[in-house]
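# nightly structure sweep
# worker-07 picked up a monomer target from the shared queue
# config: single-sequence mode, recycle default, output format = structure tokens
# input follows
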Amino acid sequence: MVITINGNTIDYTLEEEQTAGDVVNGLTQWLQQSGLLVGSLSLDDIPVGLTEDQWKSRDLKQLKHVAIEAVDLREGRVRQLDTATGYFHLLSEAIKKNDEVQLKELAEGYNDLMSMLPHLLGDGPEAPLTTEIQHRFQSWGFPNSFPSHPQDLLMECQNLISVLETRRHETEDPISSASTSARALASMAQELDQVAVQLQTGKDKEAMGIIIHLTELLQSLLRSLSWLGNSLPEELGAELTSHLMELEDALRAQDTVLIGDLLEYELKPRMEELPEHIRLLREGTT
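# output follows
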């Protein structure tokens, strides 16, 4: 069996691999050590979908050629995001059309998609967000049966499409995404004194709306910058990350005093500096 990566034949020693899936898994891990991902795959010159199951059990004795296109991490992530977004678009259309055949086909790829989702959402080692998404899908009857709550499932799909499209922009054009987030955060900095007052006067609902939006923007900024090597000054980047974690802890503890202090005295001055740092970063990348 011949194995090629980006058209080049490689010397790859098979050990206990029995199936095409075993080989591709081994090659995937090997490529990841060099910061690369599998972008596309062909078996005996026939393209196969990376999330499809049919080819994975294929006996190696039946294979003559495994061809892989390897891509760098960023390009690979964009492709994964496109795959996941496309899945939820197809699922949305199948729900709208009440298409049982399409729903059954999509159900077959559900587990592979959910295994990829934590990486795309930055969901952490225990993947609490993905676990909650899976719980909601299953409670609405998918993928194990025909959806029992199609409108709820449709709305969840639309929400996930929106989130994944945002992640794609952060990945494909991180400097533009970071610039947008930085400007929004600098504008929001002027509202933080008001938020502290709202928290102290019982107007928690108004304050929490601003705080949630603030944390979303900060997270988006940090995700975008991660594709640029966290290109903020080291001290500022570390402080933003630290204060964001403190803010999330204070929100969970409902510590309004600490929330107010973090917003007014720690985050506000640093948020006001962000557009200038991103401007310098943009100039350095052009």
